[in-house]
Amino acid sequence: MQFALVQAGSVVNVIEWDGDTAAWRPPEGVTAHPLDDTAVVGIGYGYDGGVFNAPASPEPASPSAAAVLARRDTLLAQAALRVAPLEDAIDLDLETPEDIEALTAWKQYRVELNRIEQLAGFPDAIEWPVAPT
């Protein structure tokens, strides 16, 4: 049978044990609570004397400045691939009104990406610009 070993309201271990205290007993300050077959309990769970509670989920880690800048650089590289043929069309006098509009949008996007470090939440809370379609 499985038992949760609880110390100071927190599960410190889950063990298989027959419950025979003549052969083994929990250390001082630790209590053993039998678990039914459907119980989902693990180390770190809380125990309030009748109910096991899952531990709180950890806060997601904030991205490092280097990780944010690496993503920015990847997005800038992708944008450059979209900008180059539009600039080529203009350089060769082959542009359409749609090319000019798209080029302006992609250049605006690149400017916004380049200013990521200036955002108030950098690097913890970035509101990424949306790439043109």
Q: Portion of residues in helices?
A: 25-40%
Nearest-angstrom radius of gyration?
29 Å
Query: Largest beta sheet, briefly?
Result: 3 strands, antiparallel
Helical segment tally?
2
Helix/strand/pairing category: alpha+beta
Average pLDDT reading: 94
Distance between the termini: 60 Å
Structurally, the number of domains stands at 2
Q: Globular, elongated, flat, extended or rod-shaped: what is the shape?
A: rod-shaped
Query: What's the number of extended β-strand segments?
Result: 5
User: Strand portion, in percent?
Assistant: 15-25%
Please state how the strands of the largest beta sheet are arranged side by side.
Answer: 2-1-3
| Order of helical and strand elements | EEEEEHH
Query: Which stretches of 5+ consecutive residues score pLDDT under 50?
Result: none
